[in-house]
Amino acid sequence: MKPYLLEIKYEFLSLLRSPRFAVPTLLLPPMFYIFFGMLLPMGKFSSAAAKNLLAGYCVFGVLATALWGIGANTAAERGLGWLDVKRASPMPPFAYIVSKLAGAILFGFIIQCTLMALAVFGVGLKLTIEQAGQLTLLMIAAAIPCGAIGFLVGAIASPQSAPGLINLLAFPLAILSGLWLPMEMFPPALRQIAPALPPYHVVEVALAILGRRSGEDTGMH
Amino acid sequence: MVIAELRNATKRFGPVTALDGFNLKLERGRILALLGRNGAGKTTAVRCLLGLTAPETGEARVFGRDPREREARQRMGVMLQTGQVPETLRAREHIALFSSYYPKPMPMAAVVEAAGLAGIEDRLYRKLSGGQQQRVLFALAICGNPDLLVLDEPTAGLDVESRRALWEHVRAYAARGGSVLLTTHYLPEADALADHVVLINKGRTHAEGTPEEIKARTGQRTLRCVTKMPLAAVTALDEVDQVEPQGAGICIVTASPDRVLAQLFALDGTLHGIEVTAPGLEEAFLEMTA
Fold it and tell me: What is the average pLDDT across B27-35?
């Protein structure tokens, strides 16, 4: 157990101490939330919009952490030889994957907590402990497929091409799944794409947890 | 006792044959240097022995096991050439993590001491100099108290002082009873550390022996001196390969300058201005493997 725990601890510390990673991933979602959720509506409280944005930016936090934290770092560590040092060592076989995934989950959790605090204290959204717990479980579940995309990027991209590839994946995924702006603002043609993208469904489940009934069966997502 | 072995290993990368029926045996307690120029197959040989890549034919065994087995890896410490090490961890944290992989790691204080990291163990990897970073990688290799240390080009890119410091740490490890396999393209490094040298070229063993034997094979020395003897008489001496006049004296090319000198002194008591050099020991070695 000890190597796994240490591996997770140092993966997390290492991410936290990398300003190029930690600053944008931790600050962007709350900044967007403040701008679109608090400043733009100019005090006109809309519970639906607050929930929409909370769900969207939580999922964006997980997606960005998984792609940058797992994808870009794995590509660099594989391409420049560090992964070989780890592979040649007697490291337990799953420690690498588990620690990278745990790092992404922990970062996603920090982002989620910041966003929930903003929603509750900044916008006045009512959030029960139960809803917060369910949302956390959902984000952990979402981190696994997002992490898988991250590992895939890490396995195929070179250290130089990984950031570009990640931008190409992350931004269209985020925008077209309605993570940044509510889908209602999009032209109908673009709205058709969303159901084909995985993050859209995570947002829909999150909205069901937060209590915005969309009238359809959540189980479908 | 043989603790690490490559048997008839062949490995190709497209049209390039990196290893061509290569054999290697490391005896317990030895320091073996695998010497060759870049692209000779050194790193591929090491990667096969570490189980990072599998030879197409032949096999690699470490402590009688497949090197991919964790039991084999727990008795090995490895230092590879790497361009990326998590920079935002402290030396101490890197060591603590790698120590946790091994059943009986060295105490942290002993690792810090044995790798020369005292005073800098709490610095972030990023803030260390090249020599200090290399010592951290060395610390990761020895922290598990391994029976075998595998070092791939351990001093590549280091300045003379850092290189010598690392050599001292490797010697100290060997003095505690460890076995070492190191690769280098740098002849003086093999000379300074190894008690057995394997010269590899184009994936094959080119020569093998003690550093002295290898050096004897790689090379001729240049002996300069001032003598009254005529050129023809010097040319006729044993072991003299070539003689040329140079300035006030002569320049003799020979494989054993000591024996030539003994003959010269016996014939010419006024012999002076003696200078023996090993011109281009590196070049001679490169020539040998060309």
Answer: 93
- Partner residue facing A81 (CB), from B50, B82, B86: B82
E strand spans, chain B: 2-13, 16-27, 31-35, 57-62, 76-79, 148-152, 179-184, 196-201, 204-209, 221-226, 240-246, 249-254, 272-277
Residue type, A158: S
Contacting residues for A20 by C-beta, under 8 A, at least 6 apart: none
Q: Per-residue pLDDT for A131 more than 70?
A: yes
The reply to whether residue B78 touches residue A89, judged by beta carbons under 8 angstroms, is yes
Pick the more confident residue, B228 or A40: B228
Q: pLDDT per residue over A65-105, tens digit each?
A: 999 999 999 999 999 899 999 999 999 989 999 999 999 99
Query: Least CA distance to B151: which residue of chain A?
Result: A85
Q: Pick from A3, A15, A85: which is nearest to B82 by CB? A: A85
For chain A, give the number of residues. Answer: 221
Say which DSSP state B124 is in: B
Burial B184-222 (b: 16+ CB within 10 A, else e): bbbbebbbbbbebbbbbbbbebbbbeebeebbeebbbbb
CATH for the B2-216 domain, from 3.40.50.300, 3.30.565.10, 3.30.930.10, 3.40.50.1820: 3.40.50.300
Query: b vs e for A37-59, b when ≥16 Cβ sit within 10 Å of the residue's Cβ?
Result: bbeeeeeeeeeebbbbbbbbbbb
Question: Can you tell me the distance from the alpha carbon of B2 to that of B24, in angstroms, rounded to the nearest whole number?
Answer: 10
Q: Which residues of B touch A85 (CB under 8 A)?
A: 78, 80, 82, 85, 137, 140
Pick the CATH number of B219-289 from 3.30.70, 1.10.10, 3.40.390, 3.30.460: 3.30.70
Secondary structure of B181-203 in HEC code, one letter for each residue: EEEECCHHHHHHHCCEEEEEECC
ipTM confidence: 0.86
User: Could you tell me the CA-to-CA distances from A177 to A90, A163, B16, B151, B271 in Å, in that order?
Assistant: 41, 21, 47, 49, 91
SS3 B154: coil
The residue length of chain B stands at: 290
Say what the pTM is. Answer: 0.82
* Spatial contact of A69 and A25, defined as CB atoms under 8 Å apart: yes
